[in-house]
From TrEMBL:
Species per Swiss-Prot/TrEMBL record: Agrobacterium cavarae
Function: Bifunctional enzyme that catalyzes the epimerization of the S- and R-forms of NAD(P)HX and the dehydration of the S-form of NAD(P)HX at the expense of ADP, which is converted to AMP. This allows the repair of both epimers of NAD(P)HX, a damaged form of NAD(P)H that is a result of enzymatic or heat-dependent hydration. Catalyzes the epimerization of the S- and R-forms of NAD(P)HX, a damaged form of NAD(P)H that is a result of enzymatic or heat-dependent hydration. This is a prerequisite for the S-specific NAD(P)H-hydrate dehydratase to allow the repair of both epimers of NAD(P)HX.
Cofactor note: Binds 1 potassium ion per subunit.
Family, as annotated: In the N-terminal section; belongs to the NnrE/AIBP family. Belongs to the NnrE/AIBP family.
Classification via InterPro entries: CARKD, Nnr, Ribokinase-like, YjeF_N_dom, YjeF_N_dom_sf
Subunit and interaction comment: Homotetramer.
Matches recorded under SUPFAM superfamilies: Ribokinase-like (SSF53613), YjeF N-terminal domain-like (SSF64153)
Record-listed E.C. numbers: 4.2.1.136, 5.1.99.6
Database matches in HAMAP family: NADHX_dehydratase, NADHX_epimerase
Keywords attached to this entry: ATP-binding, Isomerase, Lyase, Metal-binding, Multifunctional enzyme, NAD, NADP, Nucleotide-binding, Potassium
This protein's name: Bifunctional NAD(P)H-hydrate repair enzyme
Domain YjeF C-terminal: 228-498
Chain sites annotated for binding K(+): N63, D128, S164
Length: 504
């Protein structure tokens, strides 16, 4: 798989490997730091030219080194600059020490003040270079006090790499963290930039290329990306003149009793609009009249029990299923999943809840390799993977990866920062979903899109990632106030979004 470095996510451990490999290759670390600091200064001048003073807060690591370069560049541009330091500058080494010495050379003996002496002034812009993405402990009280003071004053913050106090791996505040207006990071985004609530702490994010070759980056990162079409569009089926409905797959969506068929209907319509050639709702006999009266393009068939499903599944064209939306009967759900264990399957809602008291039974059914996707929201994830969910040392990405590995299924861990993870460790974080998608029935639409892509023989991880991205784009196009029926009606294959982008 080729995927643009633009969408790579690099965790702090991988970033340390990249830095070390860059130095080992002969690259000058002070030159890289110079470019980083200059980029930060340029961002501050570009977005805050009216600043009365740039207050640069520097720690005793490489993040502080970037800050000293930024301070010198701002001073060279004629700005009023004050530098406040946290930590023992005697402990500085390497490139950070050189950057500090260059700053002292142009600023003189009064070039540094203690962070404890800093008080935000009217007209200040903060350049935050105290801690970088590798912070793994709560911020010290002195730093927390400054963070509070800056927050109360409403002073804009330009963060270097990551707002100080934010965990670069988990995207959570370590005791306290700056809420930056803008963040300038280098080489690639970090998980903390895209996971919630870190995404909100970072403000507007700029990724600056400081000159580390792509070969070094690619050699030292894992299979982790921000979700984008580059990740999966080459796997999608592209229609040609020889296509036909069976070639595009037959999707079966299970429905519950007559009083709760709405979820399955939205799932089925979404699957049909997302490109499945044929969609059939399989429902209890008593629900058939309701479904027949409310559906036209979607077919309906009665399936009341395991025997009826066995007969239906004997037809090899019936290869893809969605089970869960509005299903209701948890005992029957368990029986149906057992029968479909080797088929392409999307397990959602009641299909997940059915196994909350016997998760090992579900995982034992999924020992064979087959295309399958599970779509838990936060509560369902906690019920299905209680130990993983309770481990606060793990990021949401790591939790999804652990869940995918133990269940042998692709996991869509839903939320504002939906994570898609495969059993082999690949993972993507979705960032295009608007808050308006948090509405009843939205997940039923997502399940239908997943099912349609599986029916078209898209591999499970790529199908899940594409479905989540398309779901987000549809939500963005509809805007605030959308309801699930709007979303189901708006579903279109990816080609429609490509065409819209080309025509503007």
């Amino acid at each position: 798989m080729t995927h643009s470095v633009q969408y790579r996510l690099v965790d702090p451990v991988a970033m340390s490997r990249i830095d070390a490999a860059a130095e080992a290759s002969g690259l000058s670390i002070i030159s890289l730091m110079e470019r980083a600091g200059q980029a930060v200064a340029a961002c501050a001048l570009r977005h805050y030219p009216e600043a009365r003073r740039y207050a640069v807060l520097c720690g005793a690591g490489n993040n502080g080194g970037d800050g000293f370069v930024a301070a010198r560049a701002l001073r060279d541009a004629g700005a009023d600059v004050a530098v406040f330091v946290f930590g023992d500058m005697v402990k500085l080494k390497g490139a950070a020490q050189q950057a500090h010495e260059a700053w002292i050379e142009v600023s003189g003996d009064i070039g540094n003040q203690s962070l404890a002496a800093f008080t935000p002034r009217d007209g200040d812009v903060i350049i935050d270079g105290i801690f970088g993405a590798g912070l793994s402990r709560d911020v010290p009280p002195e730093v927390a006090a400054v963070i509070r003071a800056v927050g109360h004053a409403g002073t804009p913050v330009v963060a270097i790499d990551l707002p100080s106090g934010l965990c670069g791996r988990r995207g959570v505040a370590l005791g306290s963290a700056f809420k930056a207006a803008r963040t300038v990071t280098f080489v690639a985004k970090k998980p903390g930039h895209v996971l919630m609530p870190g995404r909100e702490f970072c403000g507007a994010l700029e990724v600056f290329d400081i000159g580390i070759p792509r070969r070094i980056v690619e050699a030292n990162v894992g299979a982790l990306w921000e979700n984008s079409p580059d990740l999966w569009k080459s796997y999608l089926v592209h229609d040609d003149v020889e296509t036909h409905k069976f070639k595009r797959g037959h999707l079966t969506v299970f429905a519950g009793p007559s009083h709760s068929t709405g979820a399955a209907r939205m799932t089925a319509m979404s699957g049909l609009r997302a490109g499945a050639g044929i969609v059939t709702i399989a429902a209890p006999e008593e629900a058939i009249p309701v479904l027949s009266a409310t559906l036209t393009a979607v077919m309906v068939t009665p399936i009341d029990d395991r025997d009826a499903l066995g007969d239906w599944a004997e037809d090899e064209r019936h290869g893809t299923y969605v089970l869960g939306p509005g299903f209701g009967d948890l005992e029957k759900a368990r029986a149906f999943v057992a029968l479909l264990k080797d088929r392409a399957l999307v397990l959602d809602a009641d299909g997940i809840t059915a196994f909350k008291d016997d998760t090992l039974k579900l995982f034992s059914l999924f020992t064979e390799d087959a295309p399958r996707i599970m779509t838990p929201h936060e509560g369902e994830f906690a019920r299905l993977f209680p130990d993983v969910h309770a481990d606060d040392t793990l990021s949401k990405i790591e939790k999804a990866q652990a869940a995918a590995k133990c269940s042998n299924a692709v996991i869509i861990y839903k939320g504002a920062d939906t994570v898609i993870a495969a059993p082999d460790g690949r993972a993507g974080v979705n960032t295009n979903a608007p808050s308006s998608l948090a509405t009843a029935g939205s997940g039923d639409v997502l399940a239908g899109i997943c099912g349609a892509l599986l029916a078209q023989q898209v591999p499970a991880f790529e199908a899940a990632a594409a479905a989540v991205w398309l779901h987000g784009e549809m939500g963005r196009s509809l805007g605030p106030g959308l309801i699930a029926e709007d979303l189901a009606s708006a579903v279109r294959p990816f080609e429609a979004f490509e065409a819209r982008a080309r025509t503007g």
